[in-house]
Structures are given as structure tokens and as C-alpha cells.
Amino acid sequence: MTKRSSSTSVTFRAPFQLPGLGFLPAGTYALDTDEEAFESNTGTVYQWIATTLHIPTGSGFESHRIEPEDLEQAQKRDEQAKVQARIGGMAADGSDLLAPPSSMNSWRWVPLWVRHARSDGRP
């Protein structure tokens, strides 16, 4: 049977956790996915065999087999953390979303929603 491998990368903006690996730092990680080909009457079908996450270390890389479902859950948690940070007024990079741009005088900067508020107090 024929096998194929594909390489991609995944980026986490915050530290994340995968079962059996503990917490890993934020960053971009290489992923390899292996699939096996099966011939059928309608064509070739590929079935997942393994997904390998490559974790950088001081002297190279450690390779760990992971489950795709665990990776998807970690990505969802990372996205939720990003959204929560934005809702809280902080961008994912730690900058304040409500602060005036550095190129503008702070006494003249007013958020758009304040400038366009009705004077009679109605929405």
C-alpha cells in the first residue's frame, strides 16, 4: 500500500497543553501527517495513520505522536484565549486596544464610539 506524508505548521499565540506533553510555550510548531492509500472502485482513498508534532529543543527537535482531536481542542482554546483577551481590552500581543495610537496626541484622541454618541443620550 502507498503512503503519503504532508508537512504543515501550527501557531499558538499562548502557552498550550496537549495530553502526555504538558504545557508547551507559544510559538510555531511543525506537523507531519501520514496517510495510507487504499484503492477502490471509485478511486484512491487516503486514511489517516499518524500526526507528529515536532517540538524544538536546545539541541534539535523532539517528535511526538499526537491525536488530531487533541490538537484541534488546543487550537480552539488558543483562539478562545485570543478572543477573551480582546474582549478584556487587551490585544493578544499584550497591547491595550483602547489606548490612543502613539502617533496621536492623547488629549485629542477619542474612541470612535464616543465621538458619534448622540447628545440626547439615546442609542
Describe this structure as you would to a colleague.
Helices cover 20% and strands 42% of the residues. Residues 109-117 have low confidence and may be disordered. It has a 4-stranded antiparallel beta sheet with strand order 1-4-5-6. A two-stranded antiparallel sheet has the order 2-3. The chain has a domain at 3-74. It has 2 helices and 6 strands. The chain starts with a strand and ends in an 8-residue tail after the last helix. It is globular, with a radius of gyration of 23 Å. It has helices spanning 68-87, 112-115, and strands spanning 3-12, 16-18, 22-24, 27-40, 43-57, 60-66. The longest helix is centred in the middle third of the chain and has 20 residues, at 68-87. A hairpin with a 2-residue loop joins β4 (27-40) and β5 (43-57). With 123 residues, it is α+β, with helices and mostly antiparallel strands.
Mean pLDDT: 77
Q: What is the share of helical residues?
A: 10-25%
Tally of extended strands?
A: 6
Global shape? globular
Number of contiguous helices: 2
> What is the chain-wise order of helices and strands?
EEEEEEHH
The chain-level structural class is: alpha+beta
- Main sheet summary: 4 strands, antiparallel
- Poorly predicted regions are 109-117
Q: What would you report as the Rg, rounded to the nearest angstrom?
A: 23 Å
Structure keywords:
single chain, 123 residues, alpha+beta, 4-stranded antiparallel sheet, two-stranded antiparallel ribbon, 20% helix, 42% strand
Helix/strand layout:
Elements: E1 3-12, E2 16-18, E3 22-24, E4 27-40, E5 43-57, E6 60-66, H1 68-87, H2 112-115
Antiparallel strand pairs: 1-4, 2-3, 4-5, 5-6
